[in-house]
Structures are given as C-alpha cells and as structure tokens.
Write a structure and sequence with these properties.
- This is TetR family transcriptional regulator.
- One of its GO terms (biological process) is negative regulation of DNA-templated transcription.
- The protein is mainly α.
- Helix content is 71%, strand content 0%.
- The protein contains 9 helices and no strands.
- The longest helix has 26 residues.
Length: 215
C-alpha cells in the first residue's frame, strides 16, 4: 500500500516528506523516527501529534492512518526499543563461549544501547508514562527478559540453582544499566571501551571468582 504523491520533495527538503509516495512500511518508519525526536525532547505528556506530523512532513490524517492515537504511537516505539535492548543482550550472550567475554559483551550491550542514536534508552529507562499499565509492562520487560537470558546462561554454566542465578543476573543487569546511564550523563569522559572494561572486570571478579563457570 502506498500513499498518493503530490510532490517529490519533503516538507523539510528531504525525499520523504509531505505527499511523497512511500510504501506503508517506509512511511511508518518515517513517522516513528519523527515521533522519537518529539517524545525524547518533550516527554509523552508534552508531545503533540501536530508536532509529530509536522516533524515528519505529513498531514495529521496520514499520521492517524498509521497510528490511531498518541499512546499507540508511543507504545510502538517503546516496544521496538525494548526488543532492541533484549536482542542486544541475547546476542551478546550468544556471541562467544568464553564466559569472561560473555560478561563483557553483556555489559557492552547496555552501553551500546544507551549510546545509540536517538536516545531511545530514555523512553525505556526514563519514561514519564510509567503509570500507564502497558508502558509499565514494556519497561519491566526490558529488565525481566534481559535477566532471564542471563539467568539461563549462568544456570547452565555455573551449576547454580535458578534463584541464585537469577539474583546474579539482576545484579549484572542493574550494574550495567545504571553505570551506562551514569557514563553518558558524565558526557562520556571515559572512552566507552574503557568504561565497559572497568565494569565488566568488576562484574567478572564477582561472578567468575565466586562461581567458577565451566567453559
């Protein structure tokens, strides 16, 4: 499905603005990108659909063709960012069989997510809409799914029962998330590679020292 083209130049001079013929999936991606900017800058409550449509270079009816309301638009973005983070963590754990490197890769997954373009992490970790049940569930999933992935790895490799493995996983996720956000808030004064090495060494000394994992 495409939208009728009236011009070949976007509202802001780009190739994907008002009236440009785009496949539905491409138009949706464009609208999500515009909404991302507005939600991160203004927060949910101060964001306006008018501004999102203007930023995307489309009319409000076009925006509402894809998203029936502001909450649906926000949730589409939030769920995609949660999926991105969880997939980063899962990919990190699957990237090597060396457990020390697994810990480092898991820590790096959080730093890379926080350091990504568009400040997507703010919607996940700093949402101003946590009172909305759907938002609260999505935000919680970012932590619980990451913890679950790490728990499975620790249980298999260290021979720990699930409760001990889960608590270690919660510690690693919390350490990674909080330090990554603190690192960014400090204007990246430490190189990301150095920050990841510092925190992953701290985590590994606890996990690897107290619970020798089998390679």
């Amino acid at each position: 499905m495409t939208e009728t083209a009236q011009t070949a130049v976007g509202h802001h001079g780009g190739a994907a603005g008002r009236g440009v013929r785009l496949p539905r999936t491409a138009r949706r991606a464009q609208l999500l990108a515009a909404a991302q900017d507005v939600f991160v800058t203004n927060g949910y409550h101060a964001a306006a659909m008018d501004e999102i449509a203007e930023r995307a270079g489309v009319s409000k009816p076009v925006l509402y063709q894809h998203f029936p309301g502001k909450l649906e638009l926000y949730m589409a973005l939030l769920e995609s960012h949660v999926d991105e983070l969880v997939n980063r963590v899962r990919g990190a754990l699957a990237s090597t069989t060396d457990n020390k490197q697994r810990v480092k890769a898991a820590v790096a997954a959080f730093y890379d997510f926080v350091d990504g373009e568009g400040q997507a992490f703010r919607m996940v970790f700093e949402s101003d809409l946590r009172g909305e049940p759907a938002v609260a569930r999505a935000v919680e999933r970012a932590t619980t799914d990451s913890v679950e992935a790490i728990t499975d790895t620790i249980t298999a490799d260290a021979g720990l029962d699930e409760h001990r493995a889960r608590l270690l996983a919660v510690g690693l996720v919390g350490l990674s998330q909080v330090t990554a956000r603190a690192w960014l808030a400090d204007d990246r004064k430490l190189a990301k590679e150095d920050a990841v090495a510092l925190i992953s060494n701290l985590a590994w000394r606890g996990i690897g020292g107290g619970f020798p994992l089998q390679h």
